[in-house]
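Lab notes, practical 5.
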Amino acid sequence: MSRAYKKGKPSRDARLFIIVAEGEREDEYFTYFNEINSRIRISIVPREAGKSAPNFFLERVDNFKKSGELSIEDRDQLWFICDVDKWVRAQIEELHQHCQSEENWYLAISNPCFEVWLHYHSDDMIQSGQSCSDLKRTLPTKKAGQFNVTNYCTLLEEAIRNAEQADKNSRHHFPDEMETKVYKLGKNMLELLGNNWKP
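Output from the prediction step:
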């Protein structure tokens, strides 16, 4: 992150993960971990109605910085959680370039949508050619069932394993169809959660 963005108290123990996401489902998923372990702190960057697209993500971060609501330290991480179903590739690539130029800024893309990540909580592979509507419709039929943060978040390790194994090009930021990079954020969180973190 830029030096102007790095404020904070050295005494704070928790690692802060700042999440900039498109939808409320993503917000709900990640804030669950605030209640699990004091070593993790999740902060959701607010969105305005109609401003969920990647080209608004940077604007939201600027407003977050100006608010001064949270202290931010060198070890903290800012993550953009992005889908590809509604936005042109150029917008996402621009966001990727910003992340490349800032320390501790990351981009976790799901192709085509966040529900791909949720499916990996139950599946080790996902049939190609499905739309986001298909993925949302079939989610309740999976092992984790209808979306519920407790059911899904407690399967974090399984989701990481499945999504990472399915990632055909782990070094590239843009996932192939029915793949997601959200597991990279999950792995960073899991390192802090340690063992026996499940309720």
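Observations recorded by the TA: The radius of gyration is 16 Å. The chain has a mean pLDDT of 87.
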